[in-house]
Amino acid sequence: MSREYPERPIVGIGAVVLxxxxxxxxxxxxxx
Length: 32
Prior knowledge:
This protein is mostly beta strands. It has one domain. It has no helices and two strands. It has strands spanning 14-19, 22-27. Strand 1 (14-19) and strand 2 (22-27) form a beta hairpin. The protein is flat.
């Protein structure tokens, strides 16, 4: 499984991306 991005873009408050041993927690409230 080498999918960096899902089929559909996740637009929400928080997005969790798991890559190898790195956990990226991206929280987007309002776009810049």
